[in-house]
Automatic annotation (TrEMBL):
Signal peptide residues on this chain, from the entry's feature table: 1-17
Signal as UniProt keyword: yes
InterPro entries for this protein: DUF1996
Pfam families linked: DUF1996
PANTHER family documented for this protein: DUF1996 DOMAIN-CONTAINING PROTEIN (PTHR43662:SF5), PTHR43662
Full protein name: DUF1996 domain-containing protein
Record key words, sorted: Signal
Keyword Nucleus: no
Domain DUF1996 positions: 32-281
Organism, scientific name: Neoarthrinium moseri
Length: 336
């Protein structure tokens, strides 16, 4: 009798990796090493989290140069930044910076800062759709959104750049394309989802965006269609969340008056919301995390974490030296 060998193919359902962690605020300065490298000061003010290699110019392997980070993930010396939210006094026109507060559900001790996600964006019901996730290479940088966006149609097209009017820190309410039109009981929540398909060649591009491609058609953390042949490499889907504590300004917002919050680049609407990324994970640490199915959210054994009390000791120098806090008569760097 012939023996029949039966090959049993074990279809092990893959749980996709996905990191979510907090980074405390590192600094608030008018610097932008992605869009305006070498320029001090840059055009508008930024809220920056992450590693201490942050500088007006950033070249080479940031992960090898950083010696501390405000992020819970101790090997992540990347920098993450957005514009800064200000309150414009409705009657006297003075501005006050809106403080950043830590998101609910982050490691205790996170100060201000952001929630950072690196997800695979296809943890769908169909595991066969899973694509290998390639970590960003040293020197990689990108932006999403643009301060010059000034129409509703354009802003709607910026999938994943949205606002929520927080009812509480856990009840975010609906996602919106523009600033809320009424005071929000627990602050304004901003989210920046980056595109996740890479051209496989360029660490940057002249507009800091065209080396990447977004296949997502809906807002939120939704499943990602396949990357196109022009941008075939699936990268981690990077997302920032920031909670702006607008509550102490609510009593200064007269009923029926238009939204008094403005971005530091002085857009009259919220359409110009944007964010910048400078990759800086040490060695192969991000790839290691993306390869591990148990690496989900902050329960990730193979990745080194640090207490937020340690993270909070990481600082950079004030390289610009201008007033950004208290009541100011104009936004830093702006004419009016
Ligand atoms: C920032 O750049 C300046 C000028 O190139 C340099 O002197 C300084 O050491 C840099 N700081 C860091 C933290 O890299
Ligand atoms: C505007 O109002 C705020 C709060 O009432 C006050 O602290 C600030 O000094 C005022 N600015 C000017 C220019 O009067
Ligand atoms: C990640 O997985 C790929 C494919 O299995 C493998 O070639 C690579 O060496 C792994 N990298 C790390 C850092 O674990």
């Amino acid at each position: 009798m012939k023996s029949v060998s039966v090959v049993i193919v074990a279809l092990i359902a893959q749980v996709q990796a996905g990191l979510r962690f907090g980074c405390s605020s590192l600094t608030i300065q008018r610097l932008d090493p992605v869009v305006e490298p070498g320029k001090n000061p840059s055009a508008h003010l930024h809220h920056i989290v992450g590693g201490n290699a942050f500088n007006a110019t950033m070249t080479g392997d940031v992960g090898e140069r950083g010696t501390c980070t405000t992020c819970e993930m101790a090997e992540d010396f990347s920098n993450y930044w957005t514009a800064v939210l200000y309150f414009k006094h409705p009657t006297n026109g003075s501005y006050h910076r809106v403080p950043v507060t830590n998101n609910a559900a982050l490691a205790s001790g996170t100060k201000g800062g952001m929630t950072i996600y690196y997800t695979q964006h296809d943890f769908s019901t169909d595991d066969l759709k899973h694509q290998y996730i390639t970590a960003f290479p040293p020197g990689f940088r990108m932006t999403v959104g643009s301060p010059t966006t000034d129409t509703l149609a354009q802003a709607k097209g910026h999938i994943g750049l949205r606002y929520n009017c927080l009812q509480s820190l856990l009840n975010r309410g609906a996602e919106m394309v523009d600033f809320p039109t009424k005071p929000c009981p627990a602050g304004i929540f901003t989210v920046h989802h980056f595109p996740a398909c890479w051209d496989g060649k360029n660490l940057d591009s002249p507009d800091h965006q065209s080396h990447m491609f977004n296949t997502i058609k809906y807002d939120g953390f939704t499943n990602a269609p396949a990357c196109p042949s022009s941008h075939p490499v699936r990268m981690p889907q990077l997302t920032y969340e920031t909670v702006w504590d607008t509550t102490k300004f609510n009593s200064l917002w007269p009923s029926g008056a238009p939204n008094p919050f403005v971005w530091s680049f002085e857009g009259s609407s919220g359409y110009g919301t944007h964010a910048d990324y400078m990759f800086g994970w040490k060695g192969d640490s991000l790839q290691r995390a993306m390869n591990k199915s148990e690496c989900f959210y902050d329960g990730c054994g193979s990745i080194k974490k640090q207490a937020m009390a340690t993270a909070n000791q990481c600082t950079v120098k004030d390289m610009v030296g201008e007033q950004t806090d208290g009541w100011v008569t104009k936004l830093p760097g702006m004419i009016s």
